[in-house]
Amino acid sequence: GPWEPPADPMAFPDGFVWGAATSAYQVEGSTKADGRGPSIWDTFAAQPGRIADGSTGDPAADHYRRWAADLDLMKALGLGAYRFSVAWPRVQPTGSGKANPKGVDFYRRLVDGLVSRGIHPAITLYHWDLPQPLQDAGGWPVRATAQRFADYASIVFDALHDSGARWLTINEPKTTASVGYGTSAHAPGADDVEQYAAAVHHQLLAHGLAVQAFRASGATGDIGIALNLMPVYPTTDDAAAATRRVDGVENRLYLDPVLRGTYPDDAIGDLAGQIPASRPAFDALVHDGDLATISAPIDVLAVQYYGVSGVDASGQYQQVAPTSLASWQQVRPEGLYDLLTRITADYPDAPPLVITENGIPDPDAQGTTDDGQRLDFLRRHLQQAARAIGEGVDLRQYYVWSLLDNFEWAQGYTQRWGIVRVDFDTQRRTPKSSAQWYSGVIRANAVSPG
Ligand code: GBH
Description:
This protein is of the alpha/beta class. The protein has 15 helices and 15 strands. It has helices at 24-27, 40-45, 63-77, 88-91, 101-116, 132-136, 144-160, 173-182, 193-217, 240-260, 279-285, 290-294, 333-346, 372-390, 433-444; strands at 10-11, 17-21, 81-85, 120-126, 166-171, 223-228, 232-234, 300-304, 309-311, 317-318, 353-357, 395-401, 420-422, 429-431, 446-447. The longest helix has 25 residues, at 193-217. It is globular. The chain starts with 9 loop residues before the first strand and ends with a strand. 53% of the residues are buried. The model has no long low-confidence stretch (mean pLDDT 96). Bound molecules: ligand GBH. Ligand GBH binds at residues 23, 26, 171-172, 175, 179, 183, 185, 228, 306, 328, 357, 401, 408, 410, 417. Belongs to the glycosyl hydrolase 1 family. Keywords: Carbohydrate metabolism, Cellulose degradation, Glycosidase, Hydrolase, Polysaccharide degradation. Pfam families: Glyco_hydro_1 (PF00232). InterPro entries: GH, GH_1_N_CS, Glyco_hydro_1, Glyco_hydro_1_beta-glucosidase, TAT_signal.
């Protein structure tokens, strides 16, 4: 039967890290300030019809100017860590060449401001805002972009290596490859399955090159990659083989190369079921030594968990759990337990796990501060995280997505994912019920029953 939570609070291990996450383009605004160059998201959002409400990442939550007050708010909530991303086009406005000192200075102030408030920085190097000139040169489907990323990463390591920050290379390579280059729902808006495949490999290569650059920089702290993973369940007795294939495309295509140095044979050539015969094309992307680079040892594996899917015998995705306002999100807290225990069982050499995103949008576009639905979502997922830890999963950190209502990519400002409400007219911040509750979780280092 279904798992039943115990009647008492479920404690987390001593030293467990509690945080909240954002990303640069989604919160910063000020897209032209201090020498920032254009990114693919500036270009994409400016195209008619791409974003649900016709909006852009300006001003978003105006965090570029309001960061100090936002850090005070994080401290008041008791957050132990803040995960943010560095905007590549602030640091290298054209995606190559020398650093833009004003861009670097912003992140230096942010990191110093966090440390002085006792909040640990967790820095994502790439959360989707590719400098536009690199896309003009071909973007992630082009191998040279991986080296550009490693050069950029080195600049950031040099600037911030003494901060003790935790590091993540690339946020969700699957999302960029599949909806950025495969279905055109995200920037840069390409719709080409060969580009999808090449974007997978070159982002993973970029990750590995950045890990190597990190080790060479002498930086302290740890480094990993943030993968959005999704348990898939067969919906009929004859769906096992199709489910395994979809699992390859959703999960093993990223876990296997990073943790084992191999690509899963059954997933290549079946990207979303669209290219049944592209194995030779994929193999041609993979040069000697690439898989050794991609599997360079990492210190943490970052998992981003939003929900599950069902798969039928023909490999079609099916609904098996209730959706949120985000129609792609099928909510099933037990899926988090399934995912964490599965990684632990299938990848015995995996490093410690961290959850760098987990969350849900408010039930409608207007949003609410009385967000009982989010509170319930977070509580049920944290119970599953505690359950997995109790069964031997080495989970060390957890970050809610998101700290603030923000620019939700193709949905613009019509989906509010924050534990803190942002009034986009006044930029006023108001912690929602879930933020108050999460503060209590952090203080207790335990998740309440119910
Ligand atoms: C995360 O992606 C992102 O890291 C974060 O920036 C984002 O704000 C958060 O989730 C909430 O969405 O356009 O119908 O094709 C989660 C994984 C993969 C979910 C791409 C949405 C696009 C669906 N995302 N997917 S669709």
